[in-house]
Amino acid sequence: MVSSSDSGRITKDSTVMLNFALRLQDGSEIDSNLDAAPCRFRYGDGSLLPGFEQSLLGLSAGDRQVIELAADQAFGEWQEDRELRFPRHRFKELELEPGLVISFADAEGEKPGVVRSVDGDMVTVDFNHPLAGRPVLFEVCIHSVEQGT
């Protein structure tokens, strides 16, 4: 049975309607739906990173907050072992330059990698999330909270 409550607090059993903005500490906006219709998510459904979800616990309909998330709560710490070097010939006729995003296939599916450098016959590709190692600001405006079992 689901009951609707605009005054209920977000728990691990909530469905939430919200608007959000994701920014870097310098104010650069990464993503936002503040000027659009709110989105709906069910806590724990995998649509938000765990650190983002965790930061919402206890908020209520009508709340608007800017929450600073450390790198490990957002997109993870940058990991040196996720930067790999490949022979240039593996990229056939691609015009490689730093910043180019290339999709790689592995047993788990597609993984994007960002070309960091091209040094002679070797190419360095970074498989970290582009925002790894960076704290972010997560602005949320909670419209409604529904509790359910």
Quick structural gist:
The protein is mostly beta strands.
Q: What is the number of beta strands? A: 10
Helix content: under 10%
Report the average pLDDT across residues: 91
Question: Would you state the CATH class of the largest domain?
Answer: Alpha Beta
One letter per element, helices H and strands E, the order comes to EEEEHEEEEEE
Number of domains: 2
Radius of gyration: 20 Å
Instruction: Tell me what the CATH architecture of the largest domain is.
Output: Roll
Number of helices: 1
Q: Any idea of the CATH topology of the largest domain?
A: Chitinase A, domain 3
Low-confidence regions: 1-6
Q: What general outline do the C-alpha atoms trace?
A: elongated
Reported for the largest beta sheet, the result is:
6 strands, antiparallel
| Structure classification | mainly beta
Strand content: over 45%
Straight-line distance between termini: 6 Å
Q: Could you please describe the fold and organization of this structure?
A:
This protein starts with a strand and ends with a strand. The protein is built from 1 helix and 10 strands. It is mainly beta. Strands 1, 2, 3, 4, 5 and 10 form a 6-stranded antiparallel β-sheet that branches. Strands 6-9-8-7 form a 4-stranded antiparallel β-sheet, with no helix packed on it.
